[in-house]
Amino acid sequence: MSLGTSSADASVLNAAQSKQKYNFNKLQKRLRRNVGKAIGDFGMIENNDKVMVCLSGGKDSYTMLDILLFLKKIAPIHFDIVAVNLDQKQPGFPEHVLPEYLERIGVDYKIVEEDTYSIVKDKIPEGKTTCSLCSRLRRGILYRTAKELGATKIALGHHRDDMLETFFLNMFHGGKLKSMPPKLVSDNGEHIVIRPLAYCTEKDIVKYSQAVEFPIIPCNLCGSQENLQRQNIKAMLQDWNKRFPGRIESMFSALQNVAPSHLVDNNLYDFKGITTQDGPVEDGDIGFDQPSFTTNSNAALATEESAIEVVNIVEPK
Ligand code: SF4
């Protein structure tokens, strides 16, 4: 009896383990596919690039490094990877964690030690948010390091949800329709910054980093709170996601489907120069049509086609 029970237990355990493995493989494939697609779509990495992967010790940058190392092995092009961590001398920063991890996985790396923590504490009054100065200092140091290392690309670990949050932050608080680009020229003009996790969801990254058990370094060592407005936007998006499944995906699709002629920015579209034309205009006016509110392009196409049919029927011959 007891033998029967334990063999049943063992098969339940085996089934659970196989399911877990299956789910992990699916997750890993999805993340790898999303990173590969983003790299291809935006031309992030080219032959003979040296990619400096910025590693903070958080889940996002560990995941980015892990996937880039995999893609490096199978990519049809050659590129090098160097991981860089900036030790900002925050109290309690576990200095040994990243070098040990990087040695273990056998990747080239550099730890840059700069006491930005003291500068920030010195310059920013107690109780005020320190992130903006801290990020500016960090950015400057990372650009300098990229130059020293001869890196041609600087990879940052921002993901899809960071991009959407930034989009809403800029819209709500900055009056700008602007997100985090997947690829940009650094503000000093000297470097190309890439975000290979642009198509990856934070949920997938959390699950992956837990499954792989990256040695995560807590991100609150500096004692600063995460930007309150960002937290509010995050909560808003999470709430929408629960109540309206698919809305986040739809919003991210929207960021990739911009119609400047249907916004209100005179700098982006020459409204004053609009003239009538002989034929139909690409991206022309469908202002009198019912909005379809769908992200399915086939459905949108079908709506357009049926609209054309209606026009054909009623048009006098
Ligand atoms: S949370 Fe701390 S380390 Fe991170 S950007 Fe803000 S001040 Fe800098």
Furnish the topology, listing elements before pairings.
Layout: H1 2-42, E1 49-54, H2 59-74, E2 79-87, H3 97-105, E3 108-113, H4 116-123, H5 131-149, E4 153-155, H6 160-174, E5 183-185, E6 192-194, H7 202-212, H8 228-243, H9 247-255, H10 297-314
Parallel strand pairs: 1-2, 1-4, 2-3, 4-6
Antiparallel strand pairs: 5-6
Helix pairs in contact: 1-2, 1-7, 2-7, 6-8
The structure holds iron/sulfur cluster.
Account of the protein in words:
The protein has 317 residues and is of the alpha/beta class. The chain has a domain at 22-224: 3-Layer(aba) Sandwich (Rossmann fold), CATH 3.40.50. It has helices at 2-42, 59-74, 97-105, 116-123, 131-149, 160-174, 202-212, 228-243, 247-255, 297-314, and strands at 49-54, 79-87, 108-113, 153-155, 183-185, 192-194. A 6-stranded mixed sheet has the order 3-2-1-4-6-5, sandwiched between helices. The radius of gyration is 25 Å and the shape is globular. The termini are far apart. The model is unreliable at 295-317 (pLDDT under 50). It binds iron/sulfur cluster. The site of iron/sulfur cluster has 6 residues, from α5. Iron/sulfur cluster binds at residues 130-131, 134-135, 222, 224. Catalyzes the ATP-dependent 2-thiolation of cytidine in position 32 of tRNA, to form 2-thiocytidine (s(2)C32). The sulfur atoms are provided by the cysteine/cysteine desulfurase (IscS) system. A motif (PP-loop motif) lies at residues 56-61. [4Fe-4S] cluster binds at residues 131, 134, 222.
